[in-house]
Amino acid sequence: MITVLSGGTGTPKLLQGIKELVDEEDLNIIVNTLENDYFSGVYVSADIDTVLYTMTDMINDELWYGVKGDTFVTNERLAEIGSPELLRIGAIDRATKIQKTLLMENHTLSEAVKIQAENMGIKANVLPMSNENSDIKIVTDIGELEFHDFLIKHQSEPEVLDVVFSEVAPAPGIIDAIKNSDMVIIGPSNPITSILPILSLEGVKDALKETYVVAVSPIIGNDSVSGPASKFMKSLGIPVSSFGVASFYSEFLDEFVIDDKDMELKEEIEKIGCEVKVTNTIMKNLDDKKHLSELILNNI
Ligand code: GDP
Q1: What percent of the chain has pLDDT over 90?
Q2: Domain regions of the chain by residue span
Q3: Overall average pLDDT of the 12-21 stretch
Q4: Which of 5, 149, 215, 278 is least crowded, fewest Cβ atoms below 10 Å from its Cβ?
Q5: Is residue 188 in contact with ligand 1, taking CB distance under 6 Å?
């Protein structure tokens, strides 16, 4: 069994490679739920839906959000009648979100996602990290912002002073999934807003210490490949580099994959106590994704 810890962009890219090489039945995907909230009357779990769409090849893999080729007539009409949506939700994507919202009237999020995954023909075990509501605030130089306000309304532009989020309990099955795995893969996701929420769940770090953990750096040189990860890391005093990410995961990390461009950091990272592999980690096409996945899966 292999367990992947995922956010909604970098790790789903890697999942496109992993799913070519591993039987889906042997795959658990623990997904960040920290940014989940209600928008336009529906429950939005963006990272979970991105993983569902990735596993069914429906993902809009230009935006890493929503469904490829989706239409936006409801979104546009809402704007026309005075209720513009903060999140641009497409018609097919909205159906997923409406169904989840309805299911959650008498199911937990985990149960709702299990039903949706089964209905979509997904054999992998897609596990929301928690069934509890959470709250995340980005503290910036223009005040405290909701996560999506920071990301979308303010285009991640304000200076970030801190990132604070509520504590939630792990969903049933999370800890066992990690403990019963031959390998846990921490994809190249945002270490602060995608991976830290999973690491902060009670029991997760201890379970990871008992398991072989491989992580891929989302940082190349001194910046993230995309998104505001570097701003968030800086605000928490973590060096914005592959070394910084490896140090952040050092308690439980067995192997770390860095990009060719960071070759000179290999020895420094090895001193933290993990094996370091160096390769191209920019995933532009399926070959890149399969190559990176093969390198990671090599050790099992
Ligand atoms: P979010 O939920 O949309 O924030 O997505 P994630 O947390 O899953 O992913 C965001 C992180 O993925 C960013 O920190 C990027 O640097 C990283 N990332 C995106 N694409 C790539 C890639 O092709 N290679 C690597 N190494 N990192 C990537």
Answers
A1: 99
A2: 1-130+170-227+240-300
A3: 98
A4: 149
A5: yes
